[in-house]
Description:
The chain has helices spanning about 20-25, 35-40, 60-65, 85-90, 105-115, 130-140, 155-165, 190-195, 240-250, 265-275, 290-300, 335-340, 360-370; strands at about 5-10, 30-35, 50-55, 70-75, 100, 120-125, 145-150, 170-175, 185-190, 205-210, 255-260, 280-285, 305-310, 325-330, 350-355, 375-380, 390-395. The protein is α/β, with parallel strands linked by helices. It folds into 3 domains: about 5-105, Tetrapyrrole methylase, N-terminal domain (Cobalt-precorrin-4 Transmethylase, domain 1), CATH 3.40.1010.10; about 105-210, Tetrapyrrole methylase, C-terminal domain (Methyltransferase, Cobalt-precorrin-4 Transmethylase, Domain 2), CATH 3.30.950.10; about 225-395, 3-Layer(aba) Sandwich (Rossmann fold), CATH 3.40.50. It has a 7-stranded mixed beta sheet with strand order 13-12-11-14-15-17-16, sandwiched between helices. Strands 3-2-4-1-5 form a 5-stranded parallel beta sheet, with helices on both faces. Strands 6-7-10-8-9 form a 5-stranded mixed beta sheet, with helices on both faces. A hairpin with an 8-residue loop joins strand 8 (about 170-175) and strand 9 (about 185-190). The radius of gyration is 26 Å and the shape is elongated. The two termini are about 45 Å apart.
Amino acid sequence: MCNCTIIGISDSATPWFPPEVEAIIARGYTFSGGRRHHEIMASRLPANHRWIDITVPLADVFRQYDEVGDELIIFASGDPLFYGFAATVRRERPDWPLTVYPSFHSLQLLAHRLCLPYQDMRAVSLTGRPWDALDEALIRGERLIGILTDHQHSPQAIAQRLAEYGYERYYRMAVGCRLGNAAEEQITGLNPSSLISNPTLPFPNCVILQQTEVRPRPFGIPESEFHLLDGRERMITKMPARLLALSLLDLRHRHTLWDVGFCTGSVSIEAKLQFPHLSVVAFEVRPECEELMTLNTRRHGTPGIRTVMDNVLAADLEALPRPDAVFLGGHGGKLRDIILRLTPLMLPGATLVFNAVSDDSRALFAEAVTQAGLTLTTQMRLAIDDHNPLVIMKAVK
């Protein structure tokens, strides 16, 4: 078992440490960190030290750590417990005694440079991660969003995403580059649209978004606010039925919604708008609906909805996140087959909701869910204006 000490440093070429940390470094032998950390610390380490580069695959790094013996000192950027390497050590070697000496992380440094109180800042890491956390923060309308970047999720890419989904007018960006390095530090404040065409900013960098205006976030979107399939309003789930279906799906504590037969995308978009934490996967066979989903997600500011343009009976579903909620909006006459295909993939306790527009479809759904081993729990009749009544049905696995 190895006693592990992780020391946070900034990008400064001459980092300062309290006497306690200086003493730990002076008596150390085996050190580790990224190549940039070694460049910064090389002149401060004992002459006969050993250095282990942190590179991928991490399994090789931890095999070297296991050979160290009693003491290992790791250097990490900023606060090692803030999206940092300390969490990796905790995960990979949970039994190791661990001591952490933090420094300011980059978002703290940028907030300090801007004299910006940041106690309410929503911190998001895009470093080696998908857009999900940023998408959720934008939809929720967080007032202050701090973003850790990488080469793929650069400030320019972030600005492009804001512009693509209509958020550029609601936020101002501040970009901090090489923070802590007095000779190279650069801070830029600008609106997102002007950043898209700017030259590449120095890396490493981070971003703080400051809200300038609250974007409206309606509870229930009128049908007139969607791009429709061939302009036909009857081809969209009406707002009252949509909201009731979402209520029955019980999405607040769900993780993944599958929307089967999305057409205009209204159910997926309403779900993402009201429950931004959701992972939404939407299925459709009609190719013209793909553009409708694109237009409508951008119109309503709901990034992150994953579309599968394929028949759910033929598509490869194994690679998708398993659903704990399913809305069945279209079935093409294959209602029973779809339910039997989806049920094994649904997580225990998952909900399945279907809008039955006829007595035949109502009876077929009830029969199919029973055959699939689901429990039919709810049937609610709803009449909207002069449209035929429908029955919203819920089954639970």
